[in-house]
Amino acid sequence: MTDRRAEGALLLAATFVIAVSGLAYELIAGAAASYLLGDSVTQFSLVVGIFMTAMGLGAWASRYVEDPTRAFCTAQIALGLIGGFSAPLFFLAWLHAEPFEVVLFGIVIVTGALSGLEIPLIVRILEKLGLTRHAVSNVLTLDYAGALVAALIFPLVVVPRLGLLSGSLVFGMLNLGVALIAIRVLKPTGMRPLALACMGALAVTGLGLVGGERAVSAAEAALYDDDVVHAEASPYQRIVVTNFRGRTRLFLDGSIQFDSRDEHRYHEALVHPAMTRALRTADVLILGGGDGMAAREVLRYPVQSLTLVDLDPAVTRLFRDTDLARLSGSALRDPRVTIVNRDAWVWAKGTEQRFDVIIVDLPDPRTLALSKLYTRGFYTDLSDLLSAGGIMAVQSGAPFFARKAYWSVVETLEATRNPHRPGARLDVVPYAVWVPSFGLWGFALAGPELPAAPRRPPPPGLKMFAPDQWAAMRHFPEDTARLPVEANTLRSHVLARYYEEGWAAWGQ
Q1: Which H, E and C letters describe 250-265, residue by residue?
Q2: Do the beta carbons of residue 265 and residue 395 sit within 8 Å?
Q3: How far is CA 53 from the centre of its chain?
């Protein structure tokens, strides 16, 4: 009886471990899908829904298993290999397989089905051992506890410390460790072949843990025209920096963010129209802009304090603490700069600071999570942070490739209440410049009262922006001219739809 109780305790401990791994595979798939496909809400919803459905199918199929002990050990080996290598397979498939979604959801279905097998098989093994009292309640309690632990350690430990690739392999080794112990203690039919298979799987997974990141990095390098000089997965995005003959480019989740050859056109257009027109330039806020280049342009003026709010500390560290800081003239190391790594939405609602200029350099609204940063409600929060005579500049997307999306941003700003004139709306001026890496790129100035002319000249040494170009920057020809669109709100999120439709029409 003592041996049976020890075996039962082992199975309950195994339940906890495999629950941690099972939810981790689900989170890894959701995170990878969000990194690689965008629209985190949709991707996580699909992954969770399909994974849970597959678990139900696995639980249903367990009734046809004749030898639950052998099946449990076999399932752990399979899950350790497939789940463990899921993240490397996701990234390799994204680079080389078409359509990627087939691989993604195929792995989700298999890992979900194998995870669904586990609990029914454990319960049957406990019954076989004669440990039926409270078996189901004990198993489910530990299963839910394991899921909680996985939910906590995944964002706090696994992603920042290990990354998705190494993290999935570590969880795979947990499943394989459970399988090896279960084989030794429960002694299933065909014990020797199972043990050999499990040790072989552990060896393969260990090799993957040693060389997996390198293999994926090599495969990823083939995707880019330039040499990949830095690649990492932060808790928020996939960060890749490339270089070719001194030309540096940044990619976030596969989308180009800047090219050092022409980034000055984007950043000068974003910053200087606002900085030359604001009543004062003492206190400036930048939302986004973790590469420090917008900060570089702002610091050309007599600024007393510059607050930069960027969600991802991996990006700000990269452009502050490495050789890449040279691209911004080490702007992020300037003592006047305060870096805040928080969600801009949450931070803007909680701060009591006021700013003379606000530069909104956020990623394009390609997902609902990003679209909320382009809503009337968010712009209302930002306008409340402006001091008297303050001005806000907003990067607004591509008026040619995503025409409706661009004008929706302008419409949204124009629909935002004026904090200094009750019943009125913000003054808004749309404008655009040509950036070779992006095409025609749009911006908007907004504020309680925009001056008709600049209050100060731009600083010397600019490569593109000059006051005599302002009229041309405000001109939109027929194929980019304004058209009827809706303002973006938290309720409608029309901007994300406009953005997707616009870029999809160009096959991007």
Answers
A1: EEECCEEEEECCCHHH
A2: no
A3: 25
Asked whether the beta carbons of 100 and 117 are under 8 A apart, the reply is: no
Beta carbons of 259 and 284 less than 8 angstroms apart: no
pLDDT of 250 higher than 80: yes
Closest CA to 297 of 261, 340, 339, 337: 337
Q: How far is CA 142 from CA 12, 80, 119, 255, in A?
A: 7, 20, 10, 41
With 80 as the cut, is the pLDDT of residue 463 above it?
A: yes
> Can you read off the two tokens belonging to residue 353?
């600071």
Backbone phi, then psi, for 38, in 5-degree steps?
75, -175
**CA–CA dist 5, 25 (Å, integer):** 30
Q: Which residues are CB-contacts of 303 (< 8 A; sequence separation ≥ 6)?
A: 281, 282, 283, 284, 336
Quickly state the pLDDT bin for 17 (edges 50, 70, 90).
very high
pLDDT, tens digit, for every residue of 164-185?
888 899 999 999 999 999 998 8
Residues 6+ apart with CB under 8 A from 326: none
Kindly report the average pLDDT of the chain as a whole number.
Answer: 91
Select the more confidently predicted residue: 76 or 210: 76
Q: Are 257 and 366 in contact (CB under 8 A)?
A: no
Which two tokens mark 3? 């041996």
Which residues is 361 bridged to in the sheet? 288
Q: How far apart, in whole angstroms, are the C-alpha atoms of residue 375 and residue 339?
A: 24
Cα→Cα distances 102→186, 239, 420, Å: 37, 24, 53
CA atoms 131, 134, 139, 145: torsion sign:
negative
**The pLDDT value given to residue 348:** 96
- Phi then psi dihedrals of residue 133, to 5 deg: -65, 125
Instruction: Provide the annotated active-site residues.
Output: 361
The answer to whether 315 and 345 are in contact (CB under 8 A) is: no
Q: What separation in angstroms does the CA of 409 have from each of 217, 444, 445?
A: 37, 8, 11
Q: Reply yes or no: is the peptide bond before residue 235 cis, omega within 30 of 0.
A: no
Q: Read off the tokens for 417.
A: 């209440």
- Which helix (H) or strand (E) is 15 found in, with range? helix 2-37
